[in-house]
Amino acid sequence: MQIERLHRDFGAEISGISLIDAVSSADAFTKVREAFEEYSLLVWRDQPVSDDIQATFSRGFGPLELVKVGSVGHGTFYSRMNNIGTDGSIVPSDDKAMIVARANQLWHTDSSFKRIPALASVLSARVIPTQGGETEFTSTRAAWERLDTSEQSRLRDAIAIHSYATSRNKIDQNMMSPAEHAALPPMRRRLTWRNPTNGRCSLYLASHAGAIEGMSAQEGAALIERLIERATDPAHIYTHSWRPGDVIMWDNRATMHRGRPWGGDQPRSIVRTTISASRQDGLDDVLPELWPQRAAA
Ligand code: OGA
Ligand code: MN
Predict the structure, then answer these.
(1) Is 82 in the pocket of ligand 1 (CB under 6 A)?
(2) How far is CA 98 from the centre of its chain?
(3) Whose CA is nearest to atom 4 of ligand 1?
(4) Which of 257, 272, 273 has most ligand 1 atoms within 8 Å of CB, for mutation?
(5) What is the C-alpha separation between 223 and 163, in angstroms, rounded?
(6) Domains and CATH numbers, the chain
(7) CA–CA gap between residue 101 and residue 108 (Å, rounded)
(8) Is the pTM higher than 0.85?
């Protein structure tokens, strides 16, 4: 198994071991899990991907999320995002699938708005446009470590409110159904998440975060925007240009990502599996409700 760094801040390409082999031997898995904790973003190339392979690999890291109400794949492990209609034609730009794609083009971390936030996401691109459609990533751990210590001590215990409606409203006020509104109330999250395996903190930010407790709406939104801007400075971005057979896994505690646009006449189909965070992943640190049990920082 080889590990090759992708960006100064984070990310590594794993080669010499397939996705399935990575979770079927305890020795291999220990190394992959260590690489995940260290690099936050792991890329595999040339994998024979199927839903089964993707789910088996993903489950090695923890319990899988079920896709939420209102998304394609609801109630399964597979979030399917594509612009291909049932008759095989490309959907028009006002189709829900394209609105979802535009929302994914805001910097975010997956499932920060869910009752239990996500540890990691695994994404495979099944159909790739010839141009565009890249996915960009940044390390929010590196972003945290770039802040000076006075900013860090001011922000470490801040609490942000994450809501799916916050990010969707930036794209289309009518995007969410009543069932989605009912299933996805706003959630309180610490603005930082400490990784218990190495003690390193990251900013826990997303387009789903809209307010900061104890700040005016305007002040909180401005702080979130400024922190996202600083985290996503071009020098700190890794851009993934997809090739068939690529699979990427990222740590939602320590990264943000966004999709990039592509030509509206080109098909694109991606499938995501998402792993829920557990106590061993530092959940007590990020959920204010669990703070009495949290480890000392
Ligand atoms: C996702 C996501 C971006 C993309 O799958 O979680 O944000 O490039 N994807 O499609
Ligand atoms: Mn995403």
Answers:
(1) no
(2) 19
(3) 259
(4) 257
(5) 17
(6) 2-296 (3.60.130.10)
(7) 13
(8) yes
Question: Which of left, alpha, beta for 156 (phi over 0: left; psi -120 to 50: alpha)?
Answer: alpha
Rounded to an integer, what distance in angstroms lies between the CA atom of residue 251 and that of residue 42?
9
Distance CA 40, CA 34 (A): 10
- With a 6 Å cutoff on the Cβ, whether 268 touches ligand 1 is no
110 ligand 1 Cβ < 6 A? yes
Output the CA–CA distances (angstroms, integers) from residue 141 to 6, 27, 91, 285, in the order listed: 16, 27, 37, 15
pLDDT digits (tens, 9 = 90+) for 116-156: 999 999 999 999 999 999 999 999 999 999 999 999 999 99
Report the run of H or E that residue 135 belongs to, with start and end. Answer: strand 135-139
In short, whether 259's Cβ falls inside 6 Å of ligand 1 is: yes
Strand 135-139 to 255-259 pairing:
antiparallel
Question: Residues within 5 Å of ion ligand 2 by Cβ?
Answer: 110
